[in-house]
Description:
A hairpin with a 5-residue loop joins strand 21 and strand 22. The protein has six helices and 23 strands. The longest helix has 17 residues, at 2-18. Residues 11-19, 21-28 and 350-354 have low confidence and may be disordered. It has helices at 2-18, 23-28, 51-54, 236-242, 294-298, 311-317; strands spanning 33-40, 57-63, 69-76, 87-88, 94-102, 110-112, 126-128, 131-132, 138-140, 148-156, 163-170, 172-173, 176-184, 195-201, 205-206, 218-221, 224-231, 252-262, 277-282, 288-293, 320-327, 333-340, 343-346. By secondary structure, the protein is mainly β. The strands form five sheets. A six-stranded mixed sheet has the order 8-9-16-14-19-20. A six-stranded mixed sheet has the order 17-18-13-21-22-23, with no helix packed on it. The chain has a five-stranded antiparallel sheet with strand order 3-2-5-10-12, with no helix packed on it. It starts with a helix and ends in an 8-residue tail after the last strand. The protein is elongated, with a radius of gyration of 28 Å.
Amino acid sequence: MKILNKILAGLVAALSLASCDSAIYDEEGDCDVTYRLRFRYDMNLKFADAFAHEVKSVHLYAFTPEGKLVWQTVESGDRLAEEGYDILLPLDPGDYKLMAWCGLDNGESFTVQEIEEGGAHTDLHCKLNRTYDEAGQALSTDDLHPLFHGTIDVQLPDTEDGAEYYYTMPLIKDTNVFRIVLQHLSGKDIDADDFTFKIEDNNGWLHHDNSLRDDEALTYHAWGKYSGSAGVDIDEETRSLLGYDGTRAITDVKVAVAELTTSRLVMRDWSQVSKPMLVIRQAENEELVARIPVIDYALLVKGKYNSSMSDQEYLDRKDEYNMTFFLDDNNHWLSTTIKIESWMVVLNPTELES
Length: 354
């Protein structure tokens, strides 16, 4: 009997430890069900997660399947760069639509419409902050803070045994940096202040689903301009392509560089809306140097390795664009040649607007 009693006592103790109704586990919380959300930014051309390096703030929202807000939170700072960063979701079991705008910081570049509990998810739109010139034209003159958008539908299960569930939200980057380089074919000096650089689009207002809302025409101005030079060895074939007479190689290249940042580049029905345009003019007399459809030119070097992805996916994955325009002695663009990234593109004038 003593042996039997010991066995029974052991079984009772084991069952008590395994039960989530145990007073010990109630106090320690080991049987609590928790839900955690992680973030991943690998929608880039390296296909590598850059969340910890690039994202500085998170605004997270939880909606019911009917689209009503039930919870929201904001996090920022060094914690986002920690390995394994996640956000605890203090939600009841059920189905939810999670949405995030990341990189808003203190609202310097973009503003998201504030909504209260019970508000609709369709009200969660994001608008580029802008100024206006004397003619009423909307302008953006700043280096925009990187902006990211994400959304995911989740099902938070209920269980009596306690568990920890993880979900991952993928992000899309909504800002793009353009570096525009001007270079004289003759190699003579060039001053960046002698030119103005603009990108014209109407992409400054984003829906809750990251699509474009109807917006006013917007002009992005260069937030940085500078001149520079670099040593280069130009071979005979390249000199011929660029129109050099072949008698000498220019070993010191003078360039003017401008940097602009825009909101998300979006493919649209170009028969219904105007194409986004890069416009370069001479500052003194506003004479046109170059005017190109910037998305068309950006896609020229999509390349073989990216051919399987859609044009929109390519635009979403690529967030920096470098374009070099070659000028003659009159500061006019030689519109048969442009260098995009490391590719020298020889253009057919009938194919693209110039």
